[in-house]
Amino acid sequence: MKLAIVGNGAIGNLLALKCHIQQQEFSLVTRTQQAFTLVATDILQRAHNIQIQPSTFSQLNNADIIVLPVKAYQIADTVAELKPHLCAEQTLVLLHNGMGVIEAVKTLLPNNPIIAATTSHAAYKPSTTTMFETGLGMCHLGYIARGQNSAAPLISNDTNRDALLTSLLTPCCWHADIEQALWDKLAINAVINPLTALHQIKNGQLAQSQYNAIIGEICLETANVMTACGFSAEAGILIDRVKQVIEATSVNYSSMYQDIAHKRQSEIVFINGYICQQAQIHGINVPVNQNLLKRITALEAHY
Ligand code: PAF
C-alpha cells in the first residue's frame, strides 16, 4: 500500500511521524519543493529525524491512499488541483475540522472512494520543520463515497487500505454514519477552538470554572441545531465530551489558537459558522455561536 499526505501542517506532519515509526512508505506534498528534515517528537518525548523529499501532485499516481490534512477552506481548491492526476482507484481521505465541504468534493470526484475523517489527536507545529505530538485523541472515520465499487457498504470492510488507515490513525473508530461523528466532533471544536483563540490559552485552561457557563451555552445551542438537522444530541453529553477532550489535550494549543496567533485564516466559518448557517435554515437562535463567529472574524480582519 502506498500512502501520500498532502500538506505539512501539524496533522500532516503527525501522519508523517506515524508512517516513519511504522516504517510505512509515504510521500508528502508540500508547497515548496525543498527537501528538509522534520524533527518530530512523539508522545513519549522521543525525537525522530525524518528526511522529507517533497512530492508534487503529478507524482501521486502510484499512491493507493491520498490523505488531505488541509484546512477546510483549502479542500475544494486542493481537490480541483489534484483531480487531473487521479485515477478512480485511488482513495481520498479528507481529514479536517469543521463541516460543509463534503458535497463539493463528491461532485468533483464522483468516481473515487472518499473517506471523511476527523481527529482529536493533538499536534503542535512551532516551525516548518518541527512538530510535537501533544495529546492522544480519537480519530473517527467512515466512507462518504465508495467510488466505482458503489455496491459496497459504507463501512470499513477490512481491506488492506482500511487496515493501514486504522493502524496509522489509531486510536480510531470506523462509522457507518460518519456524519453523526462529524457533528459530534464539530460540537467539540465549536467550544475549544474559538475560546482558546479568543482568550489565548491552552486547551487545559478551559477546565477552569469561569468557562463552565459559556461551554454549557455553546453545547446547548449546538445540540438544538444537531437535533433539528436530524442527528442525535444532548447538551449534557456534548459537555462531557468537550471536557474529556479538554483534559486529554490539556497541554495543546488548539488549531484555531495557532491560526490566530500566526495571523492565518482560521476554520471558524466551517465550525461555528456552519452551526449558525444550519441554525438559520431551521429557524433556531444561536446568539453565542454567532458572537464567537463575529469575534474571530473580527480578529482575522485586523491582520
Ligand atoms: O482543532 C484542534 O485543535 C483539535 O481538533 C482539538 C481536538 C480541539 C484539540 O486541540
**Oligomer class:** single chain
pLDDT averaged over residues: 94
Q: What is the CATH class name of the largest domain?
A: Alpha Beta
* End-to-end Cα distance: 43 Å
Q: What name goes with the CATH superfamily of the largest domain?
A: NAD(P)-binding Rossmann-like Domain
Hetero compounds:
pantoate
Helix content: 40-55%
What's the helix-strand series?
EHEEEEHEHEEEEHEHHHHHH
In short:
The chain is an alpha/beta fold.
Provide the fold topology.
Elements: E1 3-6, H1 10-21, E2 26-29, E3 36-41, E4 47-52, E5 65-68, H2 72-82, E6 91-95, H3 102-108, E7 113-119, E8 122-127, E9 130-135, E10 139-146, H4 160-168, E11 172-174, H5 178-199, H6 212-228, H7 235-248, H8 255-261, H9 272-281, H10 287-301
Helix pairs in contact: 5-6, 5-7, 5-8, 5-10, 6-7, 9-10
Bound molecules: pantoate (PAF).
Structural account:
The protein has 303 residues and is an alpha/beta fold. Helices cover 41% and strands 19% of the residues. It has 2 domains: 3-176, NAD(P)-binding Rossmann-like Domain (Rossmann fold), CATH 3.40.50; 180-297, Orthogonal Bundle (N-(1-d-carboxylethyl)-l-norvaline Dehydrogenase, domain 2). The radius of gyration is 19 Å and the shape is globular. The N and C termini lie far apart (43 Å). Pantoate is lined by residues 97, 120, 122, 137, 188-189, 192-193, 203, 245, 249, 252, 254-255.
